[in-house]
Write a structure and sequence with these properties.
Blueprint: H1 8-17, E1 34-42, E2 52-61, E3 64-74, H2 83-89, H3 93-96, H4 102-113, E4 118-120, H5 123-138, E5 146-148, H6 149-159, H7 174-180, H8 191-208
Parallel strand pairs: 1-4, 4-5
Antiparallel strand pairs: 1-2, 2-3
Length: about 210
């Protein structure tokens, strides 16, 4: 899964629209065989109204998940988490009150990611939440390639099925996927734990799909 540099014209166009040149590194060619697995916990599931309250990210190099090279941030939202969201992620108003300002957290996250492709489970939501935060700062959205582990798992399961059963329903629930891949599970709805589990699934699926 080698990802090369952006075409010079496209890279120049993107850099032109980047409000802060300090983050031009996002458009560099990614380091070979490196990724960042990512997860966010939020005040809710509305990408237009809710906010990020915690971020977990871990670097992957080759087939190794480098938990010693991780990022774990609490983020202070403008509005307190709802009771429903607290029941999911267990982060109360007092817990996030000491968190970072969203802009500071985004800067730390972008520096940690660099130009590495992003990996996650239902990553589209996390990326949408991050993009909403960085757009006012930078005038751009996350340019890194995104790799969805549930899509990798779907491909893996589909390959193993008889032709007449392909493209029918496959259970893509996180717990189902982890159990089927014989991978360890940790407390869910913790940003770092979820990032680690998605990273473990990514590494194993790369091997099963012949991409490692």
């Amino acid at each position: 899964m080698r990802l090369g540099p952006l075409e010079p014209l496209r890279r120049g166009w993107l850099l032109y629209h980047l409000a802060d040149p300090q983050f031009a590194f996002m458009y560099d060619a990614p380091p070979r065989n490196e990724w960042v697995t990512l997860d966010c916990e939020t005040t809710g599931l509305d990408v237009h109204r809710d906010q990020i309250i915690s971020i977990g990210a871990v670097r992957i190099v080759g087939s190794r998940l480098l938990t010693s090279q991780r990022l774990e941030l609490l983020v202070r939202p403008e509005r307190a988490p709802t009771a429903d969201s607290v029941r999911v992620h267990r982060l109360r108003e007092r817990d996030v009150a000491a968190g970072m300002k969203p802009e500071d957290a985004m800067r730390r996250l972008l520096e940690f990611i660099g130009s590495r492709p992003l990996v996650g489970y239902y990553l589209e939501f996390d990326v949408a939440m991050i993009n909403r935060e960085i757009w006012p700062m930078l005038g751009v959205r996350l340019p890194q390639p995104k790799i969805e582990v549930s899509a990798m798992y779907y491909d893996y399961k589909n390959r193993k099925r008889p032709a007449h059963e392909r493209d029918t329903m496959i259970d893509l629930r996180f717990q189902t996927m982890m159990n089927d891949l014989a991978l360890p599970t940790f407390d869910a709805h913790d940003a770092l734990n979820d990032a680690v589990m998605a990273g473990l699934a990514f590494v194993k699926l790369r091997g099963l799909l012949g991409e490692a």
